[in-house]
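Consider the following input, taken from an annotated entry for GTP-binding protein (Flavobacterium ponti).
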Amino acid sequence: MEHHKELKLRFRFDKVVSKPVEAILESCEELKNKVEPDYKIKISEHYIRFSIGMLKREKHSPNLKITLEKMEDGNTFIKGTYGPDPVLWAIFMFLHFVVASVFLIFMVIVYSKWILNQSFKFDLMIMFSMTIIWFLLYFIARLNRSKGISQMRELEKLYNKVIS
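Applying the prediction step yields:
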């Protein structure tokens, strides 16, 4: 998979494998014990999360979440998502919410001052700076994702061991 060429911050994929869900979960349990200090594998029903272990984890370390769905013909449909650490993603989304809220509040203030024929240069500067901050957040997220590509490949190797 070409992770670095994707535009998305959270790379998603779908795959159909001929291995049944139970066999995938069994091979995941076996692999979990073998790779424990370097990688962490959490299994919950038909949901598996692969992440980098505490010894190798960085702030940009990705994790891989896969959902297993049993198909009628005995195959398994896998939905996967590479993403950042859930805490980092929550902070990132919270910052986006704050930036968007400040932008919208100042947009209303600018409109009000424009209607009242008052000066609104400062408010426009705040709106412009919120736009710049939003782009900075996006590019910081892209930079962190590109730093984690080597670890994405490591998680992909683990994933391939489980499904093969």
